[in-house]
Amino acid sequence: MPDLTRRQQREQTRQTLLRTGRRLFATRGYAGVGLAELVQAAGVTKGALYHHFDSKAALFHAVLAQVQQEVAGRVVAAAEAEGDPWTRFTAGCEAFLAASTDPEVQRIMLVDGPAVLGWAQWRALDEANSARHLTEALVALVESGVIAPQPVAPLTRLLSGAMNEAALWLATSTRPAEDMAETVAALTRMLGALRSR
């Protein structure tokens, strides 16, 4: 029983560090958060942080992975709520745009993620989450004949890049509701061009 209690305490400390890191990284950015401030806000020692994460960058990596998994979960939930394959695909794309325009998600996932981890490591996380779901949806559409036969890998990267760029642009919008509606309309037209005639 004492081991279980210690395990629970360690997990509680880890979750506290993740929550605190996420809040601070989202509001101040990775560069704006010092290690001393982070542990003070979490109410833990530096030793406790280093027990779970070997650096501030490692904590950020864990926070980013968590954010990407949540966004992927929202995309999958939106897609699975629809009936036919095409509507599932477009609903998932729209859900990604909506989720990634959340300022917290945007700052961690799209702005600081590539800068802190480097492009290759950020892409690996993206591939494991958002890009994987996009690839699966495109493969299913090609196999069912909804989209003309074509290589899915470049199409996945083109669509992913377009949606990431749109999310970053929407972050600076002075008319978010209107720009979001126009972006979704443009995305719908762009995706519609992929359909087999």
Q: Helices, strands, pairings?
A:
Blueprint: H1 2-28, H2 35-42, H3 46-52, H4 56-80, H5 85-100, H6 103-117, H7 119-143, H8 152-171, H9 176-192
Plain-language structure description:
There is one protein chain. The protein is mostly helical and 197 residues long. The chain contains 9 helices and no strands. α1 (2-28) crosses α2 (35-42), α4 packs antiparallel against α5 and α8 runs antiparallel to α9 (176-192). It is elongated. The N and C termini lie far apart (65 Å). Keywords: DNA-binding, Transcription, Transcription regulation. Residues 34-53 bind DNA. Residues 11-71 form the HTH tetR-type domain. This is TetR family transcriptional regulator.
Radius of gyration, in angstroms, nearest whole number: 19 Å
Shape: elongated
The largest sheet is: none
SS field, number of helical segments: 9
Low-confidence stretches: none
User: Which percent range fits the helix content?
Assistant: over 70%
Total number of strands: 0
Our estimate of the beta-strand percent is: under 5%
Mean pLDDT: 92
Structure class = mainly alpha
The rounded distance between the terminal residues' Cα atoms is 65 Å
What's the helix-strand series?
HHHHHHHHH
Protein name: TetR family transcriptional regulator
Keywords: DNA-binding, Transcription, Transcription regulation
